[in-house]
Amino acid sequence: MILVAGLGNMFSSDDAFGVxxxxxxxxxxxxxxxxxxxxxxxxxxLAYQLLEPYDLVVLVDAVxxxxxxxxxxxLEAEPDAEPxxxxxxxxxxxxxxxxxxxVPRLGGxxxxxxxxxxxxxxxxxxxxxxxxxxxxxxxxxxxxxxLVVGQEVREGTSSCAGSSSQ
Length: 166
What we know:
The chain is 30% helix and 19% strand. The protein is α/β, with parallel strands linked by helices.
């Protein structure tokens, strides 16, 4: 099983990057063993979803790494073994690192977790991505598709066409 999870707040400009990529991916057809879902700011829901035994989890989110806005990153997540004391159980305030750290505490085991992230230009209040981040959405959707197809090839499962259903 593969989970592609979009994260972010659609009311905080470029923080909606993950949500926007999931909207693009939703236009494509996926095999039954691939779940593409917008989790938005519902981190606690994602933590519970990760209790399922996924072979690959791809998180899509805005990621600040100091690069130019619109830069895309593909990273392997390395979750902490234990969530720190500052981990909030607020369903709307649980970031990706805290979600991944919480899964073992809930009794789950994480497989491979990849992050497809985009350097934001603006995280202020507002609806809609900045132009440079919007321009990265299609490429990010292709990166996600490539990760899913690569996992399927390694496992020998049916290939994901990832074709548009427009």
